[in-house]
Amino acid sequence: MAATTAQPMGSLPSGLGICTTAPDIFYLPELVFGGLVWILVASTHVDPANPLGWVMFVSVFCFVMTFLWMIIFAAGGHKSSSGWAAADFAYHGLAAFFYLSAGVDLAFITIGKKGQEFRIYQIDIAAVVFAFLAVLLYFIHTILSAIRW
After folding, report:
1. Alpha-carbon Rg of the chain, whole angstroms?
2. Of 1, 86, 125, 144, whose Cβ has the fewest other Cβ atoms within 10 Å?
3. Does the keyword Cytoplasm feature in the UniProt annotation (predicted)?
């Protein structure tokens, strides 16, 4: 008979422990960079509405969901269940994919606005940079959540 090599999952952090563990330490930077994308895109004229509407949806959705996710983890609502570890992996993977699609859309729109007002162009460039930093943070969080799961 073959012995199983599965190891029990470590406990998920709660309380201030989310500020010291590897994947969960990314909650605050994800909120900061996602919030900056939201603010910067909203501070300009949202034109064209279709791709920039997607960028706004992604930034607002991910900001709210990451905040709620952080509150659930901080309050210990997960009760160290492996289901929550899997859900953490799935959510951050989805958020990374959403932000990647939004970042590409935003970069494409920004390239098209090169000849327009320089201040708006600079704000759009900053939003693109922060969107891709959010992609990086969510992707790293996804990888570390998969390892923890």
Report:
1. 18
2. 1
3. no
What per-residue confidence (pLDDT) applies to 96?
93
- Cβ neighbours for 32, distance < 8 A, ≥ 6 positions apart: none
> What kind and span of H or E run contains 82?
helix 82-112
pTM reported for the whole predicted model: 0.77
Q: Residue 130: its pLDDT value, please?
A: 92
Distance CA 142, CA 94 (A): 9
Amino acid letter, 42: A
The residue whose two tokens read 């922060």 is 130
Both tokens of residue 73?
């983890």
The answer, yes or no, to whether the previous bond of 23 is cis (omega within 30 of 0) is no
Expressed in angstroms, the distance from the first to the final Cα of the chain is 26
User: What torsion, rounded to 10 degrees, do the Cα atoms 122, 127, 132, 136 define?
Assistant: 130
Residues 89 and 149 sit within 8 Å (Cβ to Cβ)? yes
